[in-house]
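Quiz preparation item.
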């Protein structure tokens, strides 16, 4: 079952060519909410915005590997947009420059429907004329992306990762129901964690990773970059090339993967306090850089 789901995502993936001049930042699992007690992203909002500004100024392409918006705990998009308007305006800059690519995950799986995306955009960006409407509503969410290395047959498979999580893929509406009406109130009053989430359930996390790796082994060790589990993964060359870009809801930090000059590196953006007690946002390299060719 999981192999057929992953096979299908691979076959219908959006193609994107990259070369040594390409500069890409991959983030996932931002989980932007309504800035309430349940909005895990709000604690890292300033870090995320700072990083996005840097990446925009440095001409990076932004690829989001799903769960960018928290639509399990929240019923609609408008309160989320109002809570994080400045963040969405930054993403719109990337979009205007054709440097924005979005995947849907289990927590924003409704964006797999283009009509839903159009309704969402219209609710917060009412177009002034037909030309603006056509431009704005070209925004698309995809299930997967294949990064093709120009002039080679090498490719990198980008997915959210819930394709290897049967319950959160096939029965995501059931999971959403329990998160909204059970786990969210329990989180508020008793700090109970959602057991359906691989990010909060270690056994489920291991199962998801094992299924992804099993698919990779049966597909010629296909390099995969995913999110979903929130657990950063950066293998040494020679090991199975499964990467995970972590999440943007780690304690006071966000983690992502950069690709530049056909090299991959894992980075962490976080607060740093100097000897004078001044606090600033800095980027730390966690792993790499390593040439992509070592994994392909």
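Solution:
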């Amino acid at each position: 079952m999981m192999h057929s789901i992953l096979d299908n995502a691979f076959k219908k993936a959006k193609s994107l060519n990259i070369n040594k001049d390409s500069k890409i930042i991959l983030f996932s699992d931002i989980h932007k909410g309504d800035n309430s007690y349940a909005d895990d992203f709000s604690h890292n909002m300033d870090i995320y915005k700072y990083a996005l500004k840097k990446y925009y100024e440095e001409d990076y392409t932004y690829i989001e590997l799903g769960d960018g918006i928290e639509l399990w705990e929240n019923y609609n998009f408008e309160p989320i947009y109002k809570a994080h308007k400045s963040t969405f305006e930054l993403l719109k800059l990337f979009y205007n420059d054709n440097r924005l690519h979005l995947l849907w995950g289990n927590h924003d799986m409704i964006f797999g429907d283009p009509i839903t995306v159009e309704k969402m955009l219209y609710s917060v960006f009412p177009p002034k004329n037909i030309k603006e409407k056509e431009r704005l509503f070209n925004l698309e969410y995809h299930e997967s992306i294949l990064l093709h290395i120009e002039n080679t047959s090498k490719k990198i498979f980008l997915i959210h990762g819930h394709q290897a999580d049967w319950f959160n893929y096939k029965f995501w509406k059931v999971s959403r129901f329990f998160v909204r009406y059970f786990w969210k109130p329990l989180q508020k009053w008793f700090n109970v964690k959602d057991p359906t989430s691989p990010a909060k359930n270690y056994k489920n996390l291991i199962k998801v990773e094992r299924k992804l790796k099993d698919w990779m082994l049966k597909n010629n060790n296909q390099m995969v970059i995913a999110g979903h589990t929130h657990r950063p993964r950066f293998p040494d060359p020679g090991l199975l090339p499964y990467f995970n870009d972590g999440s943007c809801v780690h304690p006071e930090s966000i983690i992502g993967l950069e690709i530049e000059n056909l090299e991959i590196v894992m980075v962490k953006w976080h607060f740093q306090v100097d000897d004078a007690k001044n606090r600033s946002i800095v980027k730390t390299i966690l792993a790499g850089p390593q040439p992509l060719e070592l994994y392909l």
